[in-house]
């Protein structure tokens, strides 16, 4: 993993390829998809866990386009297995995770992102149209005491394939909630319950 000093947090500090990717994604979701979003409530500095419901492959693009900080996502391993997708994901220092089991290595890398004072993006549902709430967010809160920023996407739907979803114009809406602050000793059920409730209230 890259040293903290070598990892950009603000997009203005990023490489030309990072800034170019952000500009491309911004133009795509704003003008092609007709997306709308509220001002981000992600803190301007310091560690933060950005959590959002997951309805389509457009969701992470909306989060990236609406923020000026680099967001490192936990991303399903199958996306990293695609060479083109991997090159794009590496621009945000995203972390591949296996969904068929508890991926301890990915969680440790995610904790390092927060230790470095950066933003970690999570979809607590564990995948599109899934209802099994992942407990990783609670463990990361307990390990880092980082604030949890809830977000909610509506007006988007996953198509028959990722490509079909990207091509279909959907006019999604992204809303942000007030950051949640938990004590390191907070119960996992409390963290998960409050987090999912905060996301739901944004619907």
From TrEMBL:
Q: Which GO terms describe its biological process?
A: phosphatidic acid biosynthetic process
**Sorted alphabetically, which InterPro entries does this protein's record hold?**
Plipid/glycerol_acylTrfase (IPR002123)
- Keywords, in A-Z order: Acyltransferase, Transferase
Pathway, per Swiss-Prot/TrEMBL?
A: Lipid metabolism
Q: Domain Phospholipid/glycerol acyltransferase spans what residues?
A: 48-156
Q: Which SMART domains match?
A: PlsC
Q: Which GO terms describe its molecular function?
A: 1-acylglycerol-3-phosphate O-acyltransferase activity
Domain of life per record = Bacteria
**PANTHER family, alphabetically?**
1-ACYL-SN-GLYCEROL-3-PHOSPHATE ACYLTRANSFERASE
Query: What name goes with this protein?
Result: 1-acyl-sn-glycerol-3-phosphate acyltransferase
